[in-house]
Design brief:
By secondary structure, the protein is α+β, with helices and mostly antiparallel strands. It contains 3 helices and 4 strands, in the order H-H-E-E-E-E-H. Strand 1 and strand 2 form a beta hairpin.
Length: about 130
């Protein structure tokens, strides 16, 4: 292993270990809330992402001038509520949580696609 890459590898290993240790059922299913004879359990979609990179280079013809080494990385986590599990005297029910913004974006994309298809059909008819 190249000594220059050892710090990047150690950072990547630490982040991977942290993500692996944090990726468990308790992240997706929240703490149950009991109210009377009902229990509510929140459910989330959890996504992790990260990336790292590093490199080194030298100047023209291996010259020391213009040579260097560098590296970097980043990551993130996203938790989005998707449902609640409701447990009560009348049984267990999963109640989905709808993201209105996502539904609106989907409607706008479909409308845009239909408009483009209609416009292209008109252009083809005029040429044909």
């Amino acid at each position: 292993m190249n000594e220059d890459s050892a710090p990047q590898n150690e950072i990547a290993r630490r982040v991977t270990d942290t993500v692996r240790n944090g990726a468990n059922v308790e992240v997706v299913y929240g703490t149950p809330v009991v109210q009377g004879d009902h229990t509510i359990i929140p459910v989330a979609r959890v996504s992790y992402g990260f990336g790292f990179g590093g490199g080194s280079g030298s100047g023209p013809d291996g010259a020391e001038v213009g040579s260097g080494i560098g590296g970097g990385g980043g990551g993130g986590v996203s938790a989005v509520p998707v449902a609640v599990i409701e447990i009560g005297p009348d049984g267990t029910h999963i109640r989905p949580i709808y993201d209105v913004n996502s539904l609106l974006r989907l409607v706008l994309v479909i409308a845009g696609m239909l408009l483009i298809a209609r416009t292209l059909r008109g252009v083809v008819r005029r040429r044909g």
